[in-house]
Amino acid sequence: MVLLPDHIGIATDVYDELPLAEALERLAAHTTLAEIYSGDRHDLLVAGNRRAAVASGMRFTVHGPFEDLVPGSLHERERRHAVDVHRRHVEAAAEIGALCYAVHPDVRERVGSRDPRVIAALGRTIEDLAALQQEYGVRIVLENMPGAGHSHFVAPGDLDLGELGFLLDAGHAAISGVLHDFLFAADLDLAHVHLHDNRGPADAHDPHLPIGRGVVAVSDVLDVARVRHATVILELLSEADVQESLDYLRRRRLV
C-alpha cells in the first residue's frame, strides 16, 4: 500500500453516508491525513465522533459548518451566532488535535456588488475567529469562494485576513479566473489547500471533478503548497473520483 505524502490528505465527504469511524478506516488505505466536515454524520460535537477520530490514529484538518451561518451578517445577533457555532466546533477540533479549521466567509446565490457594511462585519468576525485561534491553539483558515459577485472573498485583496491563515480552494479560484493570482499573492499566509477540478468559469456550479478532468493547474498548486508548507486536501465527491485522482497524480509523478 502506497500512501500519499504526509501533507496531502482526503476529505471525509467521500464517505459522508458512513459513520465517521468507517469513513476514516477507508481513507486510511490512501492517506494518514483526513479532513472532517464537522456536520451531519461526522459532526465533531458528537462525543463518539471525537473518540473515533482519536482512535483512528490519523492526523486531521476540520472543515467548520457553513449552512445557515452568516459570518458577514448586518444583524449583530446573527453574526455572533455564526461565531458562537464556530467556537464550539473549534473546541472540538482542538480536542482531536486538528492542524487547522476551515471557515467559509459568505456566499450569495445571486450576483451582487460589494457591500462595505458586509466587509466591516466580516472584519469583526475575522477578529473574533483570531481570538478563538489564540484561545484554542488551532490554526483557523478562511476559504476563497467561487464566482465574482457571489462572495466578498473571491480574489486576492478582497478581505484583510488579519491573523487568520488562507485556505486556497483551487477549484473555486479556477472558476473565478484568479488561481494564478492566489498562488503568487505574497501577502496571503497560505496554510491549507482544497484541490479538485473543473472547467473554469464554465463550471460555475462548482462540480468538484476528479483531478485531471479540467483546467486547474494541479502541478503548480502542489508545487506552491510544498514550498509554503501548506496541507492539501483532495475534496472530491465519491470513492471512484478519489481513485481516478490518485491514478492521475501518480501517473504524472506529482505525489
Structure characterization notes:
The chain has one domain: Divalent-metal-dependent TIM barrel enzymes (TIM Barrel, Alpha-Beta Barrel). It is α/β, with parallel strands linked by helices. The two termini are 14 Å apart. The protein is globular, with a radius of gyration of 17 Å. It has eight helices and eight strands; from the N terminus they run E-H-E-H-E-H-E-H-E-E-H-H-E-H-E-H. The longest helix is centred in the middle third of the chain and has 21 residues, at 116-136.
Reconstruct the topology from this structure.
Layout: E1 8-11, H1 20-27, E2 33-37, H2 47-56, E3 59-63, H3 76-95, E4 100-103, H4 116-136, E5 139-143, E6 165-169, H5 170-176, H6 179-183, E7 190-195, H7 218-227, E8 231-234, H8 239-251
Parallel strand pairs: 1-2, 1-8, 2-3, 3-4, 4-5, 5-6, 6-7, 7-8
The helix count comes to: 8
Radius of gyration: 17 Å
Main beta-sheet strand count, sense and barrel state: 8 strands, parallel, barrel
Order of helices and strands: EHEHEHEHEEHHEHEH
CATH architecture: Alpha-Beta Barrel
Helical content stands at: 25-40%
Features:
single chain, 255 residues, alpha/beta, TIM Barrel, 8 helices, 8 strands
Q: Quick recap of the structure?
A:
With 255 residues, the protein is an alpha/beta fold.
